[in-house]
Structures are given as C-alpha cells and as structure tokens.
Design goal:
Layout (H helix, E strand, L loop, with lengths): L3 E2 L1 E5 L2 E5 L21 E4 L4 H11 L5 E4 L4 H13 L5 E3 L7 H7 L4 E4 L4 E4 L2 E4 L1 H11 L4 E4 L2 E6 L2 E8 L4 E6 L2 H7 L5 E5 L12 H10 L8 E4 L6 H10 L3 E4 L14 H10 L1
Parallel strand pairs: 1-16, 2-5, 5-6, 6-7, 7-10, 10-14, 14-15, 15-16
Antiparallel strand pairs: 2-3, 3-4, 8-9, 11-12, 12-13
Protein name: 1-(5-phosphoribosyl)-5-[(5-phosphoribosylamino)methylideneamino] imidazole-4-carboxamide isomerase
Pfam family, one: His_biosynth
GO biological process, one term: L-tryptophan biosynthetic process
Length: 277
C-alpha cells in the first residue's frame, strides 16, 4: 500500500530544500560555471533533530536523511537526526563500504543509502560495479541496505528512459532504471530510493510516467519498498501514485511541504492520509 515517507535533506550543515538540477557543490555559496548560485527553496533555522522529531511523533517509517555533499557539517547534522530517532531513519550521501557500519552501529541509522560509491570507471563511462554492491550488502546485511537509483530522463532511439545520476545528480552513469536493473539489484538490498532529478525541488508535479514504470518494474516482494521523490505538490499526489503504481510505490514530499516553508501541502494532512490508508 502506497504511503507518505518523510525526508531531511542536508546541505552545508543545514536542513534545506534545493532544486536538484542546480546542485553542483557542497557549499551553497559556491557558484556554477555560469555564475548562478545553487537554487535554494528553503533553508531552516531549526536543527535536523527538529524534523526527526516530527516524523518520530507521527511514527512515519522509512524516512531518509540525505547529505548533499560530504563535509563535517553535513555529517554532524545527519548524526543528530539519526540519534533523535535511533534505528528508524535511513541515511545517505557519501556512504561507502568504509563508513557504512559506522552510520548503522554508531550513529544509529536504520539503513544506509548508497549510490555513487557503487559506480566505477571503465572506457564507456560510469558503470555499476557488481562486486562493490555484493561486498557492501554482505558487510551490512541485505536488510539494512537501500540502493539509490535517482535518475534523469533522457531520450535514446526516440524512446524515453531514465538513467541513474550520481554525484549529487550531476553525473550520468551507464545504468538504466528498468525492470531488469531493479530485479538484479533487489537480490542485494532491502529497498530502493528514486529521486526524479529533473523535477526535484520544482513543485511542478511528479514524473507520472516514471511512477507508472516503477509500479510495473517493482520486483516481487518489494511492494512498499520503493520510495519515489520529486515534484509532489498536493496531498492528492498520494492517490495518484497509489493508482499509477498499483499501490507499490511510496511518495516523499519536499519543497511543497509546510514544515519546509511550502504552502501547498500540510504535514498533518499527509499523516492523516497514512492513517486512513
């Protein structure tokens, strides 16, 4: 059954909502080559624990904490969130085989979310390293691993497809999000997290075709273990995702949500939707 999941995005040590396609640096004041700043929809005055407590009080399971950049300030904020609700929040951003157990055991995350570390270079570009996937799954346990397949929409041979994007969604890999990819990777992980990077932070609507495909491609046993993020701007999007995915995909809200400065969606309404369903 489709449900709402929470998120806590951290950039430069602060809880923020950012337009994903503009995120090229760890520091919000770092400029892109064209001179434009990272576009921030919201920067919170509250610590990450403030938001973790929202989700804890409402018992919203499967929420993720994403560090948008690898620096000490982001690590500190993510640690605070995880320790606020021990072994209930998933943490991602810069996770490797060297620090995964630290986040799980010492910093009390329920799962680690991994993307960029899984990809290595060959002559064709960034490829999914299956040996790395198998090794980190064996180390932390399949039941504590989330694979982030956040992606961008591209055209190949006049057909729409979605390609995994790494490094804060700026680098396209050679891995396509499709039925075969999800089925193969599902042998090593407990859940999937998929941001639609093209619409992330824009509040202009979900990528309905991607959501529909995720429902079709969902591996057996992963119903309710695929979380989609990007573009949600109304409570009714939960009904839309439930219908499009045949109740197999969960939905995350960001910039549209009132606790992140949004005016389109109230957290209490999402909590009520979960409770009714």
């Amino acid at each position: 059954m489709t449900k709402f999941r929470g998120c806590i995005d951290i950039h430069s040590g602060k809880v923020k909502q950012i337009v994903g396609s503009t995120l090229t640096h760890d520091d919000a004041e770092s400029k892109k080559e064209d001179g434009n700043l990272v576009k921030e929809n919201f920067v919170s005055d509250h610590p990450s624990s403030y938001y973790a407590n929202f989700y804890k009080s409402a018992n919203i399971k499967g929420c993720h904490v994403i560090k948008l950049g690898t620096n000490e300030a982001n690590d500190k904020a993510a640690k605070l969130a995880c320790e606020t609700w021990p072994f209930n929040l998933q943490v991602g951003g810069g996770i490797t085989i060297d620090n995964a157990l630290h986040w799980l055991d010492d910093n009390k995350a329920s799962h680690v979310i991994v993307t960029s570390w899984l990809f290595t270079d060959d002559e064709s570009g960034k490829i999914l390293n299956w040996d790395r996937l198998a090794s980190i799954s064996k180390l932390v346990g399949k039941n504590r691993l989330v694979i982030d397949l956040s992606c961008k929409q591209v055209k190949q041979n006049n057909e729409t497809c979605w390609i995994v994007a790494m490094n804060r969604w700026q680098t396209l890999t050679n891995t396509e999000v499709n039925k075969e990819t999800l089925k193969s990777i599902s042998q090593y992980c407990d859940e999937f997290l998929i941001h639609a990077a093209d619409v992330e932070g824009k509040c202009e609507g979900i990528d309905e075709e991607l959501v529909r495909k995720l429902g079709e491609w969902c591996p057996e046993g992963f119903e309710g273990k695929v979380a989609y993020a990007g573009g949600a701007n109304s409570v009714e999007d939960l009904d839309r995702v439930a219908l499009l995915s045949n109740n197999k995909v969960d939905l995350t809200y960001g910039s549209a949500l009132d606790i992140f400065g949004g005016r389109l969606v109230k957290l209490e309404d999402l909590i009520s939707w979960n409770q009714r369903h």
